[in-house]
Task: inverse folding
């Protein structure tokens, strides 16, 4: 299993989030999540422009064996989605921290403070 | 007082962990879902080379006595009396309402009739058989045996190396054979759609023999995840999905298990009427448009009216697309019929297709 990057924030529902310029929050799933899911065969992404609240279900990742919902870590508007994973969802298995799934233009980036840092997330997944 | 119910382990539990398995609880047993390379790789490996499966969680028992075959035949629509020594038969235990108590494999061997039953049904099955079989039949639960499957186009060469007589078996034949000093019962059967074998052996020998088989070129361990996608592609029923106490064997498409003229089994009236007239609902295959898997429980609709539901659905590694099996109103079950599956908020186009999705490659003659 790969390292848990220090520069990201982590949700209990196993998304990672990265705050970028202009209050844009980039979101993917953690390496633990991709490992638990196994071979990913479909990723359903939200429509660009959709308005979301923090904690709202926004996307779905399906592996051979199961479907798993993804939640928005912040409130805002969907600014961009990674179309590459529509055709090649298995990219996420190969590099969960390299492959982002969607970006949210956050209303209030301070919401990210509610998420875990790398240490806390490592503790969560080691339980 | 706290009651701890811990799940059981097969004799290969430690080996699974050493092989990097991701474990899950299935039917009360700690079982490998997948190993390091993942379900898709394991699945394709079994289709192209050989896969080793630990299926020791399944139930094994023996029914013996002079009238054992007659007695067992009264519990199933399939023919047991006519089974020749060394032959085996897939059939079901039917209930009085025409549903299925379990699907089972019966083998006639030197010591009687050996049965393999589903792990999740074995307590129920064993209690049922004990209660139904007459006093002159001996019922024995064979709880000290392990069970392996070796499946795939490379399985026969591996099997022949360890037990030449097993390598000469045809599909649904069985023999006793020695593998490296262990007394095994080997049959040419399995549940992947591929040529292959199932090997019943003493638990005490299980890990040693498993390691021998896994050391052969081309043999890789396969978990329950790929076991499920393999049997789905092969269009085979899984108890609790395509079969249960309320689905008849005719609805499940198991007409081929019936013994001609046999009318003395539980639920015969309903089941034989369906056999003659057709059932209102039937099991079909569904090819799914797009990439979204259509899973168990999804409604199948035609012009906004539900006409059935998905019994199993997943991604087919061989076809590289989602496939499913469903129980459908027979009026909509013709191959080629275009229907809709409801997945979350999406309407997914699906097409009825005949089964299996991937042709069987059994060695029949």
Result:
């Amino acid at each position: 299993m790969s390292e848990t990057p220090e520069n990201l924030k982590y949700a209990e529902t196993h998304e990672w989030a990265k705050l970028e310029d202009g209050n844009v929050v980039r979101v993917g799933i953690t390496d633990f999540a991709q490992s638990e899911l196994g071979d990913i065969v479909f990723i359903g992404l939200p429509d660009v422009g959709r308005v979301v609240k923090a904690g709202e279900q926004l996307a779905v990742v399906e592996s051979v064996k199961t479907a798993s919902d993804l939640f928005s870590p912040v409130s805002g508007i969907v600014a961009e989605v990674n179309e590459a994973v529509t055709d090649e969802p298995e990219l996420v298995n190969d590099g969960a921290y390299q492959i982002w799934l969607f970006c949210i233009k956050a209303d209030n980036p301070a919401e990210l403070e509610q998420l875990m840092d790398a240490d806390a997330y490592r503790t969560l997944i080691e339980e | 007082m706290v009651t701890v119910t811990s799940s059981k382990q097969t004799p290969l539990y430690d080996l699974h962990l050493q092989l990097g398995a991701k474990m899950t609880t299935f039917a009360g047993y700690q079982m490998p879902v997948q190993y390091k390379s993942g379900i898709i790789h394991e699945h394709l490996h079994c289709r192209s080379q050989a896969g080793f499966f630990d299926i020791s969680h399944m139930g094994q028992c023996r029914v013996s006595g002079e009238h054992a075959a007659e007695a067992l035949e009264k519990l199933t629509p399939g023919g047991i009396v006519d089974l020749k020594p060394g032959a085996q038969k897939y059939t079901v235990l039917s209930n009085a309402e025409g549903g299925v108590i379990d699907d089972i494999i019966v083998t006639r061997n030197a010591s009687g009739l050996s049965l393999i039953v589903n792990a999740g049904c074995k307590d129920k099955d064993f209690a049922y058989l004990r209660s139904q079989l007459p006093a002159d039949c001996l019922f024995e639960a064979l709880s000290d045996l392990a069970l392996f499957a070796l499946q795939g186009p490379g399985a026969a060469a591996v099997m022949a190396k360890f037990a030449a007589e097993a390598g000469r078996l045809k599909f649904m034949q069985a023999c006793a054979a020695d593998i490296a000093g262990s007394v095994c019962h080997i049959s040419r059967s399995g549940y992947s759609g591929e040529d292959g074998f199932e090997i019943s052996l003493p638990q005490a020998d299980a890990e040693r023999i498993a390691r021998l088989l896994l050391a052969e070129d081309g043999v890789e361990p396969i978990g329950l995840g790929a076991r499920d996608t393999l049997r789905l592609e092969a269009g085979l029923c899984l108890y609790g999905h395509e079969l249960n106490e309320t689905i008849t064997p005719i609805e499940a498409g198991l007409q081929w298990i019936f013994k001609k003229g046999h009318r003395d089994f539980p639920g015969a009236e309903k089941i034989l009427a369906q056999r003659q007239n057709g059932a209102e609902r039937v099991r079909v295959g569904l090819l799914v448009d797009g990439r979204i898997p259509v899973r168990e429980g999804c409604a199948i609709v035609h012009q906004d009216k539900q006409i059935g539901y998905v019994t199993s659905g997943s991604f087919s590694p061989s076809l590289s697309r989602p496939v499913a099996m469903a129980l459908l109103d027979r009026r909509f079950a013709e191959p080629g019929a275009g229907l809709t599956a409801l997945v979350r908020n999406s309407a997914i186009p699906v097409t009825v297709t005949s089964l299996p999705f991937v042709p069987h490659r059994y060695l029949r003659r």
DSSP finds nine helices and 20 strands in chain B. Chain B touches chain A at residues 22, 33-34, 38-41, 225, 228-229, 291-293, 295, 314-315, 317, 322, 344 (CB under 8 Å). Chain B has a mean pLDDT of 97.
